[in-house]
Amino acid sequence: MASSVIRPLSRSVNPQEIAFFSKLSAQWWNENGEFGLLHRMNPVRTQFITDKLDLKGLDVLDVGCGGGLLSEGLARLGARTVGIDASASNIQIASHHASTDPSLATTLTYRHTTAEDVLSPPPSSGSGGISIPRQFDAVCSMEVLEHVDDPASFLTTLSQLVKPGGHLFLSTISRTPLAYFLTIFAAEQMLRKVEPGTHTYNKFIKPSELVKFFRELKDEETGKEWIRRWAGSGEVDVRGIVWVPWENQWKLLSRTASEWGGTECNYMFWVRRPEAGPSSTP
Amino acid sequence: MLRTLGNGSARRAGSQLFYARCRQRYASSTTVSQEPEHRDIVIVGGGPVGLALTSALRSSKAVSDALSIELIEASPLSKVSEWNPGPDAFSNRAVSLTNASVEFLRDIGAWEHVDEARTCAVEDMQVWDGLSDARIAFSAPEHLSAPQMSRMTENLNLQRACLRHLAASPSPSVKLSENTKVASVVQEGESEDGWPLVHLSDGRVLRARLLIGADGPNSPVRAYARIPCYGHAYATSGIVATLFHAPPHPLSANAHNSTAFQRFLTTGPIAFLPLQGGSSPQVPGSYGRPTTSSLVWSTTPELAKALIGSGEEVLSLMVNAAFRMPDVSLRYLNDIILSAHRSGTTISPEALREEIGFRERAHGVPGHASMLLEGSETMGMGMPSEGEDLLPPLVHGIQKGTPASFPLRYNHAEVYLGGEKGRGRTALVGDAAHSVHPLAGQGLNLGLADVRELVRCVEAAVRVGGDVGSLPALEAYPRARYLANHTVMSTCDKLHKLYTHGSALSPVVWARSVGLEVVNEMDTLKAGMMGAAGGRPEDALRAGLGAKTNWDLAVKALGAVGGAVQAAKIVRGVVGGVVGRATGRAP
Do the Cβ atoms of A143 and A36 come closer than 8 Å? Predict the structure, then answer.
């Protein structure tokens, strides 16, 4: 792929990772290819999101949209969706695929950029076309966290892209022996369901680490921590997802399953930014 | 696909308007350009399956809010919605709906538009072998929520119900295009993932996110999708006709004309399926209406042609004979009909009656089974004679114009989704995916089960913003249906092979009789066959799983019968010479 793809503009983007996914980008919409598992995971990810909010008419940012698997679904559900990716070829594939689908014409925009650049656009980039918002009702970043270099800075950027009272959705893989066995040993090396080299074990992040991050994250405007109370508080949710091979489907596990190791491997994470204004939170 | 249209009559102003509106909507686009119009779902074929599919999609609010749907049908659907025959005329295309099918139609809101007076509960079944007379009797078990194994109705009653359902809940996103043919389907662009472009006879081009073939056994959608299909033609044709007969004896189990009869002849099974009970003081408005049943008779193509060519009176005599006469006499009668047909003539009803009478006396046929005693003082008087429940009532007339025949095939598409193997964004339902022997009356029931699962997939995909034409959105559909359909189809196929073209001298008869007696002993299997022939699978187990399990049992038992046939062949090998010497001179 073209070297222009690799723009070490931001701290979180890893040039090797971007080159790796660029190489695979033509495969994004092959439903039985490298990304077959991701295609089957998509309904569960979207379900997790729609369980929390009605997307109709909301501004949503999909960070690391890849071929646009999630972005297209969000746009079809009525969200004004912006998909961004650090790989130019991903964006090219995603745009091409969306252009064949008339239901996405008015609600979906793709941009070859990074989260950091959306937050503070570099003065040089006179980005033509439609301007995109600086903050969103919901920010999603699915299966991206385990590929970035500086997760703390990446999460901080994402948090700043969320409007007050808005939602942040993440999905990633926990750093456990089980996760190593399933996602790297079994899926990549043994079964070759996923391209070998897709995942790096020590980049995986545990749910408890994410919770800790947002417990300590002070909101820019209100100064409040993002998480003050734990489970069932309506501020945060962690749910495991598992692959059911004989059904060729992923299942979203119940909240109680988390206590039984439900989040030992792939999991979804949701957190809400505190409302603006001192008295607006109940 | 519409095969037959019954006697349509009175025009319905309401439905006229409905269709006019649809035509008008398209008038402008036809003349302006041939720029493809986008549709999320294009359904080809407005037969019972295609219409039920449209109804089911419409009844899901999530689906009809989100997707644009268009049904393409070559024939005038308005004729179906205006179809309004009297109680003395029935279309020859009737179907036995399982309780599961009825429940599905009720769930989607189409059943309330079915004219229930034109449906008939099947409460008992009598199935027997034409050679050995080994017999199975099924009854609807008491614990069923509805005391019926299945419900007979005309296909048209069902199609009209779906059209009425759609007309009663009009939606800008659901369109019906009647009198419109699919001229061709081509793939957009060069690549294999291009969307189907459906060129229509009215000049429009539809660009389909998902193209569904409900277009029958020779499905053009299947051809476009490049989905291979395997199967074989049976050397068999199915004869259908509407039969009028005397009401069954009021004290017999069949008093309300609620028993289905099926006899496995050496030329194929013949079925007598109740459509309407006769006039009864208990049923208001039933005065003077004829007791009516539907015929489905699988036989050799030549005999089918000869029988239909011989006229309705000869056919009704032969139907009576086919349920009553021993195999040897039936073959004799068949030969008479065939040789007349070959010489370009037909046998007169009088001559046939005489032949039947002669053979009845020779066989010592008991009075209640006689065809000549019809109208005599024994009919419907006194106590029903022993065994009267075992035979269908005597046919005394066939509705004019209803006898027809069609070739029977076994066909199963290799996949149901083009995305699995072939061109994407295509799906097959009903006969486009599978043609099954009609001996268990399962064809349309399988099609409706397909519809239920496909709509479930579409709805689930819409809820998560999925692309309903994509493989991940639809792959649960074949997973739920393919094996289930295959099990039923191969069971019917095995039954057909087991029971057809036997010879009276063959040890297979012995195996057949043992097989059926074995079947009669096995309560579980009986439940399975009933699930298949009409019972609600939920009453045994849950939904599809139950039906599948019951059929699996049936398959296992048939495997045992197959083993018996093998054993019989070995026996023949050993004692064949003796049997051959003993019987060889007889004919």
Answer: no
